[in-house]
Write a structure and sequence with these properties.
By secondary structure, the chain is an alpha/beta fold. The protein has one domain: Aldolase class I (TIM Barrel), CATH 3.20.20. 34% of the residues lie in helices and 12% in strands. It is built from 13 helices and ten strands. The strands form two sheets. It has a seven-stranded mixed sheet. Helix 6 links the parallel strand 7 and strand 8. Helix 3 packs parallel to helix 5, helix 5 packs parallel to helix 6 and helix 9 packs parallel to helix 13. The longest helix is centred in the last third of the chain and has 17 residues. It is globular. It starts with 29 loop residues before the first helix and ends in a 25-residue tail after the last helix.
């Protein structure tokens, strides 16, 4: 079917707004767009816009038993990397925006993040646990180069000797190598670079605006050479599209001195599932049915399994085979031997906070 929203260099092939939260469904008027395309010789480039957001707090909390952290910070809402599988896409629906192209082009930045973080860390009843960055949208997406909100957050965390983790798809993490190196000396940080495919053509369709996989692996090596614990996240594994690369990615991680790897099968919550199906029709029509059949087999016959624990690993023979292949590759290359426990005993409240006086 024709997709009048589709833009070259963007991930989502659609921009419809879901009919959740009692909001009306919106989608492009194909006849109008077709007419404009004839007049203008193609759709104009989709420009990225950034809106300033002023939240009241910056630390998000969760109680999920299958997630290894209980708090996180997201400097940005939406992500220009445009990864079609991103499970954060549905959050744009909360703002009456599309989880499709809006998610990757209509972004929100939180420039007050460092100030808000100082206030929260200064509370007398604050209990220290590692803060995760990059668990929802990427803290090193392209706009970080100008806004530097992630860096301002890291400066506060380092000042307070607060532990943190970073997950990213970008070698832009090396912009903050100075902070990460100092934090690593006190065992306060951990970095994971996500690599889903080593094949440029696949990466360009899956993650159209993320840095090339080779750059991410080079960043892993640079982090390790600076003494920073760095892993490779193979997340997600997409059956019949990227799963054949699993062992190769583990091998590449070892060659680039990563301490280890972990993986996650693709998840398709809420509006991600129809977007992913549309993406398959656009880029892989020859195997779209096969891909979804395997995903359904891992998700109890559905596009998505929201249940704790099984949502992270899948179920059934295909998930078991993926697990066995991964574990064999890890053993072969000697990874995942070192567990890096972050320190919490060095924390001090921000300078000038009342708590520092006691």
């Amino acid at each position: 079917m024709p997709r009048p929203d589709a833009r070259a260099g963007r991930g989502a092939p659609e921009n419809r707004t879901p009919d959740r939260f009692n909001l009306p469904t919106r989608e492009a008027d194909g006849d109008w767009l077709d007419a404009r395309e004839e007049l203008d010789d193609g759709l104009p480039p989709l420009r990225t816009t950034v809106t300033i957001e002023h939240p009241r707090t910056i630390i998000s909390r969760n109680q999920s038993p299958d997630v290894g952290f209980d708090r996180s910070i997201n400097p940005y809402r939406g992500c220009e990397h445009g990864c079609i599988y991103c499970f954060a896409r549905p959050t744009h629906a909360f703002h009456d925006l599309s989880p499709g192209l809006d998610f990757e082009s209509r972004l929100f930045a939180k420039p007050d993040a460092a100030k808000l973080l100082r206030a929260e860390l200064a509370k007398r009843n604050y209990a220290v646990r590692p803060i995760a960055l990059g668990t929802n949208t990427d803290p090193y997406q392209p706009i970080e180069g100008r806004w530097r909100i992630t860096r301002s957050i890291l400066e506060v965390l380092l000042e307070c000797r607060h532990p943190f983790t970073i997950t990213t798809k970008s070698d832009r993490v090396l912009m903050d190598l100075d902070i990460l190196r100092e934090a690593a000396l006190d065992r306060l940080c951990f970095v994971a670079l996500s690599v889903t495919s080593l094949t440029p053509a696949i990466a360009r369709t899956l993650e159209p605006r993320a840095p090339a996989p080779g750059k991410r692996l080079a960043a892993v090596k640079a982090l390790r050479e600076a003494g920073i614990p760095a892993w490779v996240s193979i997340a997600p594994v997409v059956p019949a599209i990227t799963d054949h690369e699993l062992e190769h990615i583990v091998e590449a991680a070892a060659e680039h001195k990563a301490l280890g790897c972990f993986y996650l099968p693709v998840r398709l919550p809420y509006e991600v599932a129809p977007l992913f199906r549309a993406w398959l029709d656009e880029h892989y029509p020859d195997r779209a049915a096969k891909v979804m059949a395997i995903i359904n087999s891992m998700r109890g016959g559905r596009d998505n399994d929201p249940n704790f624990f099984s949502r992270m690993r899948g179920q059934g023979p295909w998930a078991a085979l993926l697990k066995a292949r991964f574990e064999r590759a890890i053993r072969k290359h000697g990874l995942n031997r070192e567990r890096h426990k972050l320190r919490t005993d060095l924390f001090q409240p921000p300078e000038g906070a009342q708590g520092r006086l006691f």
